[in-house]
Here is the input.
Amino acid sequence: MSQQNNTPDGAPEAPDAIAPQELQWRVVYSLLRPAVRLASVFELSLRDLKEWLGVSYLHELKRRGLTQSESADRIGVSRRTIISLSRKLRENFFEPERHEGAQRRILFMLWAETMSAGRLKQSLGGEFEDDEIEDALATLVDQGAIRGEERQGTIHYELERGEFRLYKDNWIARIDALNNQLDHISDTVFARFFTEDRSSFARTITLSVREQDLSELERFYREVVFPELVRLDEAAAGQKDVQPMEVSISWAPKDFISTTENSFGDGRSKGE
Here is the structure.
């Protein structure tokens, strides 16, 4: 068994000094590698990859509240290009995962405190439209994840239970979960490479597991890890010095892409 960490406990490390811009480029390059690995398996064209990179970049800037003009200046392209990217961003392609994303963001906001629909719209207005937030609220109420209570003529929403998990086994929910996990990875990378913050943690462990013991990994998560995280979360309820945290856990056979891509076959892109 081996353990790998990208930095020592809590602080960035490098054998030699490196220019800040070079470090930024190297980190971004490393983060692009997972996307490029899958693009290679799916045989996506470089043209398509560049287009989706542009859409993703604009999506992030829009989420940060930048206007089209500000986005054009930040990316270094014309307004015409921004308008074209915006048009693609508004396509129905993104609607299913946006609905799931709105639900997840609402659950996170309500984890911290009870909120009205108006406050949720104000807080999430840069990410979602009002009707998307209203639809997500209605869905979460129907699922029993949250409940609404009228107070002085205004409905306030709160979680039904603190450990509610937005878990659904369909492609829409999986894409949203992937977005959430990769957002968390970005936060972790930024914290560990570019700040002095010591509250982030990253480890990769390589080990061998017998076929009959593979199910033990999930049992370990469900019976040991998750209950302990619930305990920590409940201990923070109502306290002042609280830090919202995200913990991501994943496992897969080592070099899984390399050993299975030849059997992927008809799943490859048929792009021009």
In short: Strands lie at 2-4, 115-116, 146-151, 154-159, 204-206. The mean pLDDT is 84.
